[in-house]
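Could you join me in thinking about how sequence relates to backbone shape in a protein? Label the sequence line and the structure token line clearly, so we can match residues to local backbone shapes. Once you have written the record down, we can walk along the chain together.
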Amino acid sequence: MDPDTRPPLNFLLYGFSQVVAIVATIPGFLPKYMKILAILFFGWVTFETVFIRTTGSKAGNFGLGSMIIGQFFCLIDLVLLTPHTSRITERSFSQRVLWTLKLYINPRGIGWSHEPSRLPPRPSPSTPRWEFVVSKISRVIVCVILELLAEVAFASNPGTNSAGKVLSEAPFHWRALGVASFGLAAFSSLSAIHSALAAFSVGCGFSSPERWPLLFGSLLDAWSIQRFWRLVWHQTLRKVDL
């Protein structure tokens, strides 16, 4: 495969775009023209991230690109299309900022009206904090091992590493291994990040165990394509109902 010669991702610019998104979403804070400018700026950063720059890996490009594109459309919806109720806009500025931060860091809407109706089972509120943290750290270790195995399988696959050829041209078994490796790597990395955040948040007392159902459902429920996307894969791309 030809090397990716695009310039590296500008992390400062990307981070600043996240701050802009949060500020633009605060109810009753910015005038409409500034909200439109914020959306245009975020759209430009989205274009830069997806088409102009690279994270250094195809998996990273795909993951970050899909995330920021989803954020862009959610930002348009939240800032321009979804009206805020008076019970939100009449709160103090600090309360509105906290409300926005909670919305930003909770993509599945746990505890909100747009929470998915079929999430994986969540821990009991009575779960000891130390027990929850240990279980999440253990899950992080398992996920890291799985991702390493997936990366080795992907790197050693002739279908994904033959110069001048694409995966669709490879024999079926190499294509199947390539897709399975990519899916396992995505599953493992996202699960590891989610588990690490859960361990940190609950361990530091910022959250409680029942706020952290698993990110993915059981593969045993994936006996159809619809059920895979509805019950097994993560449910972080949600229409926010305020």
Notes: The mean pLDDT is 89. The CA atoms of residues 63 and 186 lie 8 Å apart. The chain has eight helices and no strands. Residues 11-104 form one domain.
